[in-house]
């Protein structure tokens, strides 16, 4: 059975309200040893996330009076606006002037549901370029946080546990393919060997085993009698 976000998330979550001040946010980040905090409204719903990056804009623009006094020519402003750079710079400047979480946070927050699979959360983190995801229920209320480290817990599964799960996959295939398949697990790497009737079965089994939680890689040494895998069509044929 695949692990969900609820299985690996942290439920004791550090967060701040929308009216939390800059120094309160910094103190909470340092005390809890995290790089970002969910920002909550009065009903415990996640309205944004404030990160170290958001806070560093104030350091970046601190005492930078020359940058604030300079106003580029109209042509340069139009070019920057069209490229999107102007909007990003304007937002960074706004955050530098911000005093509360409501002004400093990034919004909307990238969140995930407790029932989402761990692999789904990992893909979301990769796609959105974040290291932590607030976990919210159906109303948007905060119930936990899942980090990259939390997602890696599935790979701490023992070889014996992985082998038992792999054997279930092998038994299902052997039941109707009549193959004598062997599976060896070492450091999360599964090696499959033995005969099967069809090449498609060998491919399907390797794919199923690769999806077993905790499997790092699959070495497919299965032999087949019938090559029923259609070759890729050649151009012009």
From TrEMBL:
Gene3D superfamilies, per the entry: 3.30.1340.30, CBS-domain
Name of the featured protein: CBS domain-containing protein
Keyword Ribonucleoprotein annotated: no
4Fe-4S listed as a keyword: no
PANTHER family reported in the protein's UniProt record: CBS DOMAIN-CONTAINING PROTEIN CBSX3, MITOCHONDRIAL, OS02G0818000 PROTEIN
Residues annotated as domain BON: 158-226
Domain CBS, residue spans: 9-65, 105-162
Organism: Streptomonospora nanhaiensis
Pfam families documented for this protein: BON (PF04972), CBS (PF00571)
Keywords tagged on the record: CBS domain
